[in-house]
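hey so u asked for the seq, here:
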Amino acid sequence: MLPFEFPVAENDIRIRRIRSPRYVDYEAGNAILNRLAWLYNHPKAVRPPCSLIYGDTNNGKTALAYKFVRDFSPREDSPEYGKRPVVYVHAPPFADLNGFYDAILRSVKAPYRSTARPQAKWDQLLQLLGAVGTRVLILDEVNNLLIGKVDQRSMVLNSLKSLSNELKIPVVAMGTQDAVRVFQTDQQLGNRFEPIGIPRWALSKDYAVFIARYVQRLELKQESNFRSKELVGRIHSMSEGLTGETCKLLALAAEMAVHTEREIIDLGTLDQVPWVMPSERRRMAR
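ran it, structure tokens below
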């Protein structure tokens, strides 16, 4: 168990910093961010380009979306503050047109009546997204649309396409491999949304460099030896090469290193971290 029962007040701020989200550059992630920036800077068009970004669960998709939103949102001292050039939306838990419209309206913090007719919400969306200067709409977890009635799925997908056409802006869909199946159900959507996969990490020097750079930002007092193939291999095995799992594991290990006052991540630290491998978690959830 993590020894959280030891109250070390001077370390509280460090632990909070360790738990805070952070982004460390890596090739696959930067390729996605570059694609999103290209879409953002694309001029309005009758048939704007769109993308479908897919990958395994907890492989960094949502973290990349959040970073993109942060990077392209106007700061408080900007005359554009209050605009929403990038709107991030989490798809409803199942295919539902009203739920889809509600999710977008909540994202832009717009008042709305959940009982309003879909057409009224549609008109409100077009007006609002135009008014706040939206240039890219991101819909995450689109694989959820596989759950529910086929006619509702078709209506949501058609509305997604129509939003892009009406506003003349790119739409980015994100999800698991199942998201590809969603868009394969409609040939026009399949042609419009260019699929881009985010691969798992291979056990490689690049992975070791990523780990080292990530841990450097966790501000441990001792330097960990990520030149050790055994240590890097253990981290890769425990995380199964998933970016989000790697980051979560390293943060837990860093907490353990602080609480035990060892201030280093090594095989001994990893042995103390309470951890269930991602594939095992999925099996347990069935």
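The beta strands are 50-55, 86-90, 136-140, 171-175, 193-198. The longest strand covers residues 50-55.
lmk if thats what u needed
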